[in-house]
From TrEMBL:
Residues 1-124 form the PX domain. PROSITE patterns: PX (PS50195). PANTHER family: FI18122P1, SORTING NEXIN. Transmembrane segments: none annotated. This is PX domain-containing protein. GO terms for cellular component: endosome. The lineage of its organism: Eukaryota, Rotosphaerida, Fonticulaceae, Fonticula. InterPro entries: PX_dom, PX_dom_sf. GO terms for molecular function: phosphatidylinositol binding.
Amino acid sequence: MSNEYYLIKIPIYETHIDQSGTTFISYKVEATYKGTINSVFRRFSEFVTLHNEVRKAYKGNHLASNIPVFPPKHPKFMIDHMDDHFVDERKFNLERYMQLLSRLPKIEQVPMYVDFLEGRPLQPSDKK
């Protein structure tokens, strides 16, 4: 069994406007594994999708208790999600979450985890 894991950083975020005119934030996820660096921008909702998939993958496994706590969601009507302080704090919390997740035993066996880090589309499993 290997002790190697992805080294995760989220160094920056960017503000975008989608086709409907909605503004959103994406976070640059840099994953280094065995000297190779992959960089991909992901929205908060994609981190939520990943977390839910990891929980499904570990359901019933004794390792489920090792899944890190996901950063809190905040209703948009209560907090401005475009506020620099809010986005910086969320970026920090997402980076810490991903660093802890990368150390979860057998995490590399969760297909969506690798897809997330390598920039592939996220396809949730049908598993409940």
